[in-house]
Amino acid sequence: MLESLFIFIQDYILKIGFLILNAVYVVFLFIIFQQANAMKRVVDTGPDSNLIIYFALANIIIGILIFISALVIL
Amino acid sequence: MPDIFIDKTKEENKSPKEPSPDLENIADKESMPLEKMDKTHLLKNLGIKAHGGRVHAFSSYFETPSKLHFSNKLNEEIMLLFVRKHFITNTPWILKALAMGLVPVIFEFLGAFGFYSTDFLETAGKFIVYFFYYFFIFSGYILVHYMTWFYNIGLVTNLRVIDIDFSDIVYEDVAATKISQLEDVHYKQIGIVRSVFDYGDVFVQTAGTNRNFEFLAIPHPENVIRIINSMLGRKSHA
């Protein structure tokens, strides 16, 4: 009984928990992207400000890809 | 009683001493309002070399940056100084990021020696979890700390002192004050590390109840003080 409960937790709750964590993290990355844009409007140091924005955008894309991979693999 | 009188006509006829052209020139320049000076003249007066270059990704002190724009910049405004915290102040979080990067390696190492079991995840699942972890370090921890350092900026122009604070992603604070409202400026450089890397805290005091400015851990604080001080005594119509 206890063993089956442990397997259930292991199989579902941990995986669903990881997916939720991943999704929340993608939202957080989106906030970082928005703030990078907002700060660029306040002070623009040239290509470096753009680099941060592109990096933040790339992170969102990678985050979504990780979420999809986790959904498929786990 | 003899009349004592002074021959006024002689006194009036005396032409007042005319100052030499050089002295007059210097006096005019020193009393000239900052916003009316042209850039070359202003920089020469303040003892700043016109680099005119671009602030790069790791710059923490730059004189006369040319390709820098900020909101509400006035047309006649000339950028004099750009300061951030010294890059050495980023060392703690860089070391923490490196330590965080070693955690999965340590776990794997302990697992290999049988201290605990890592069988609850398949290899592909483990890869995803570790990949996410390293992704979190780069995109969350490092990027957020770098952005916090990158956008904590102090600017000194011929008209204003501007302090841009940014922290924890959601906190933004932009404050500016006119040069004419500055009252006092001083700095503190305490400690061996600060002396070795030449950075310190600059405090700018404004008149009345206006907000004071703090530029913390900025490189070459004595230069910043010198530049701001040399503008303090001048007239400004800003």
Describe the protein's architecture and organization.
The complex is a heterodimer of chains A (74) and B (238). With 74 residues, chain A is mainly alpha-helical. Chain A has 2 helices and 1 strand. Chain A has a domain at 29-74. Chain A has helices spanning 2-42, 47-73; one strand at residues 43-44. The longest helix of chain A is centred in the N-terminal third of the chain and has 41 residues, at 2-42. The mean pLDDT of chain A is 88. Chain B has 238 residues and is α+β, with helices and mostly antiparallel strands. Chain B starts with 7 loop residues before the first helix and ends in a 6-residue tail after the last helix. The interface between A and B is medium-sized, with 33 and 35 residues. β1 (43-44) of chain A pairs antiparallel with β2 (69-70) of chain B, so a sheet runs across the interface.
Features:
heterodimer, A: 74 residues, 92% helix, B: alpha+beta, PH-domain like, five-stranded antiparallel sheet, three-stranded antiparallel sheet, 9 strands, 39% helix
CATH class of the largest domain in chain B: Mainly Beta
Structural class of chain B: alpha+beta
Largest sheet of chain A: none
Oligomerization category of the chains in this entry: heterodimer
The counted number of beta strands of chain B is 9
Task: Note the run of SSEs of chain A as H and E.
Answer: HEH
Tell me, rounded to a whole number, the average pLDDT of chain A: 88
Overall mean confidence score, pLDDT of chain B: 82
Task: Pick out the low-confidence regions of chain A.
Answer: none
Question: Could you provide a short overview of the structure?
Answer:
Chain A is mainly alpha-helical and 74 residues long. Chain A has helices at 2-42, 47-73; one strand spanning 43-44.
Topology diagram in text:
The complex is a heterodimer of chains A (74) and B (238).
Chain A: H1 2-42, E1 43-44, H2 47-73
Helix pairs in contact in A: 1-2
Chain B: H1 8-13, H2 21-31, H3 39-46, E1 61-63, E2 69-70, E3 79-83, H4 91-112, H5 123-150, E4 153-157, E5 160-167, E6 171-178, E7 182-188, H6 192-197, E8 199-206, E9 213-219, H7 221-232
Antiparallel strand pairs in B: 1-3, 3-4, 4-5, 5-6, 7-8, 8-9
